[in-house]
Amino acid sequence: MASTDNQDNVLDNSTDDRNTKLEKVYKIFDELCQCPICLKLLVEPITTICGHNYCLSCLKHLLASSNLEKTCPLCRENLSYLKNSRITINFILRNLLETRYENQYLERIAEIKQDVLDNKDKISVIKRLLIGNYHATINTGYEIGAHRWTLFIRFADDENDMDIGTYIKEIIISDPATQEHVLDAPPYRYTMTGLQSRTICLNIEFHSRFHKANLRTDWNLCFTGIGNQKSIELEFIN
Ligand SMILES: [Zn+2]
Ligand SMILES: [Zn+2]
Question: Where are any strands of DSSP class E within the chain?
């Protein structure tokens, strides 16, 4: 509790001092009030175990979005605990937000309600994308010890490439040994012969209805065993 001395000091402060302090408080508060996920005004704020603040709807979306580990987008703290516990709104922060932003806060509430309505018929699909290569050593003519390799891009649950074309529009392959190569329909395979392993860059474009940014990744050709692959989890909102 503030002592009488402190109260006197506060009262003694000039109006200018108070305004400067107030401006500082507003500035800090305004910075704090942007949700790091949606980059808009925080609504129904949740303070996580690491002390960061997110909109309730943004956090729910993060927790529901995929099978990946749930981590704080700002500091990577594990947020899996939120899946099994009651998520509690930071009421002090909410009251401050409502008071400072009034109509803007109400507009955000309405916006989120509309988003929920717009998305209620949409389905989230998780796909596991496999990128890798298989290879064989060939010993014919001048190509002794060369590798006949095939780069593949496919879905884990889609052995015959029946499904992948629904999601992927095209893949641009940048192979340092040749020119750019565009794969515009499945099966997404790229076969070459060579002696040396190298890194192939991929730019994967999805169909526009998924509103998904291109996936840029690369693959280092593997000539040991039968080859190798990596897996990337992708979420599509249909
Ligand atoms: Zn948000
Ligand atoms: Zn955090």
Answer: 45-47, 53-55, 124-138, 146-155, 168-174, 181-183, 188-194, 199-206, 215-220, 227-237
Cα 120 to averaged position of ligand 2 atoms, centre (Å): 29
Sign of the Cα torsion 155, 157, 158, 160 reads positive
Give 6 Cα–ligand 2 centroid separation in angstroms. Answer: 35
Q: How many CB atoms lie within 10 A of CB 159?
A: 9
- pLDDT tens-digit profile of 30-51? 888 999 888 999 999 999 999 9
- Ligand 2 geometric centre to CA of 38 (Å): 15
Torsions phi, psi for 167 (to 5 deg): -105, -40
pLDDT in tens, 147-203: 899 999 999 988 899 999 999 999 999 999 888 999 999 999 999 988 889 999 999
Nearest to 55 by CA among 103, 123, 116, 122: 116
Residue 219: CB atoms within 10 A of its CB come to 20
Judged by its nearest atom, the ligand closest to the C-alpha of residue 77 is 2
Prediction ipTM score: 0.93
Ligand nearest to the Cα of 54, by number: 1
Beta-carbon contacts of 189 under 8 Å, excluding residues fewer than 6 positions away, are 150, 151, 152, 153, 183
- Which domains, and CATH codes, for the chain? 14-119 (3.30.40.10), 124-237 (2.60.40.1970)
